[in-house]
Design goal:
With 192 residues, the protein is an alpha/beta fold. The protein folds into 2 domains: 1-38; 54-189, 2-Layer Sandwich (Double Stranded RNA Binding Domain). Helices cover 38% and strands 29% of the residues. Strands 1, 2, 3, 4, 5 and 6 form a 6-stranded mixed beta sheet that branches. β4 and β5 (125-140) form a beta hairpin. α2 (74-89) packs across α3.
Length: 192
């Protein structure tokens, strides 16, 4: 059995101390860098003025007789989906009115469904199209050149002529609303 000398024990103890101090420093540096890194989520290329803190979204209303066939709850659903998108895709606080950035005068201008392609015998349509057109005012209180008035957005959904509008309406409106919201965001925040 070998006995360690005092010199070997001191060397071993010094190595342990050096190792512990080194590991503590490395861990501290890693924790510092990891805590200082922040990931920001937003739409690609989105340009929101840095001084903007709030946004407001008016409730959509029916803006013409051509929108009268729209399900009665759909304007409110479109408004809520726009509010949800604003909340989840920006750092802006959503307020009821008079935000730094505002979607105002939100109107559904038309809601139409009609044939797009006639059948081989000319007797029945093979393809129908549901089209929704909206009009929106956007106000940027920091840069008036980015604002717009009564900007029109229109999207459609084509469906098989063997189906009725009521059979496809839910799916169609989900897709159309998603596209309309993307269009509004691009116009307001990406200058499209």
């Amino acid at each position: 059995m070998k006995f360690r000398t005092n010199k070997q024990e001191r060397r071993s103890e010094n190595f342990r101390i050096f190792f512990m101090i080194s590991m503590s420093i490395i861990c501290g540096v890693l924790i510092f860098f990891m805590s200082s890194c922040k990931v920001k989520y937003n739409l690609k290329g989105m340009t929101i003025p840095p001084e903007a803190k709030t946004i407001s979204v008016a409730t959509f209303k029916l803006g013409s007789d051509q929108a009268g066939l729209m399900p009665p709850t759909e304007p409110q659903l479109l408004s809520q989906k726009l509010r949800d998108a604003v909340s989840s895709q920006t750092n802006l606080a959503l307020i009821k009115q008079n935000g730094d950035l505002r979607f105002e005068e939100c109107k559904v201008m038309s809601y139409t469904s009609g044939p797009q392609a006639i059948g081989s015998q000319g007797d029945a349509a093979r393809l129908y199209r549901l089209t929704v057109t909206i009009s929106v005012d956007y106000v940027n209180t920091f840069d008036a050149s980015k604002s717009f008035t009564a900007k029109s957005f229109s999207r459609y959904f084509d469906y098989d002529g063997t189906k009725t509008l009521s059979q496809i309406e839910g799916e169609a409106l989900d897709q159309i609303n998603r596209q309309l919201i993307e269009d509004m965001f691009n116009a307001a925040f990406n200058n499209w």
